């Protein structure tokens, strides 16, 4: 089962959410691939679930609690933050809201995790080739 089917089933998505999620994931994956970052199916599920939660919070007028994410942000590559921002901007625009940097940082952590996962996989492949 592909990641969209898993998320759709587990989070009981409506038609509008499916459409918004597809657009977001296409932007996210496209922008990430430009930087050589690829998502595993499990990573796609995680970021898709996060994005659906974001959409639902915005629709309900709810926001993340105040939190200091400066330490997290300082660990993230600027390109990863740019990808997260480009991916998230349209949903904030749709609801006529300013982009919430906390949400962008949390999306960026998913991208960073995908990059780390990919790097570890590449290192393991290299090590296996040497044995």
UniProtKB/TrEMBL annotation:
Ranges annotated as spanning the membrane: none
Top-level taxon in the UniProt lineage: Bacteria
Domain PRD: from-to ranges: 12-121
Pfam families in alphabetical order: PRD (PF00874)
Example GO biological process: regulation of DNA-templated transcription
Protein name per UniProt: PRD domain-containing protein
Provenance organism: Tepidanaerobacter syntrophicus
């Amino acid at each position: 089962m592909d990641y969209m089917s898993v998320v759709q089933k587990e989070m009981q998505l409506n038609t509008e959410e499916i459409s918004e999620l597809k657009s977001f994931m296409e932007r996210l994956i496209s922008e990430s691939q430009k930087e050589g970052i690829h998502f595993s199916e499990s990573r796609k599920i995680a970021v898709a679930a996060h994005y659906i939660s974001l959409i639902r919070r915005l629709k309900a007028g709810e926001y993340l609690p105040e939190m200091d994410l400066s330490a997290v942000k300082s660990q993230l590559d600027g390109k990863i933050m740019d990808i997260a921002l480009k991916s998230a901007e349209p949903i904030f625009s749709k609801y006529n809201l300013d982009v919430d940097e906390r949400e962008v940082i949390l999306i960026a952590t998913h991208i960073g995790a995908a990059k780390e996962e990919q790097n570890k996989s590449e290192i393991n492949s290299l090590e296996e080739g040497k044995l």
